[in-house]
C-alpha cells in the first residue's frame, strides 16, 4: 500500500526569502545544465565527439550570486539531475 503525506509550512519573512533564493538558484543551475547538455548533444550529433558535462561549480565563476552563503546548494543537484539529462 502506498501512502502520501502532505505538509504545510508557514514560514516567516526571513525563511520565505531564504527559500526563494535557494530554490531560484537551484532552478537556474538546473536549467543552465540542461541547456548545456542539449548543446553538447547537438555537437555530438554533428562531430561524434562527446564533451565532458559541466558541473554546478562551473557556473559559480560566471554568476557571482551563486557564491553567496545563503545559496550554497548541494552538489547532489548534478547527481539527481543526471538521469534527466540522459535522454538528451
Query: What is the number of helices?
Result: 3
Question: What overall form do the CA principal axes indicate?
Answer: flat
Number of strands: 0
Average pLDDT, all residues = 79
Give the end-to-end Cα distance, rounded to a whole number of Å.
34 Å
Helix content: 55-70%
Percent strand equals under 5%
* H/E element order: HHH
**Derived structural class:** mainly alpha
Residue windows where pLDDT falls under 50 for at least 5 positions: none
**Mind summarizing the main beta sheet?**
none
Quaternary form: single chain
Which terms summarize this structure?
single chain, 88 residues, mainly alpha, 3 helices, 56% helix
Short synopsis of the structure:
This protein is mainly α and 88 residues long. It has helices spanning 13-47, 59-62, 76-85.
How would you portray this structure in words?
With 88 residues, the protein is mostly helical. It has a domain at 33-82. The chain has three helices and no strands. The longest helix has 35 residues, at 13-47. The model has no long low-confidence stretch (mean pLDDT 79).
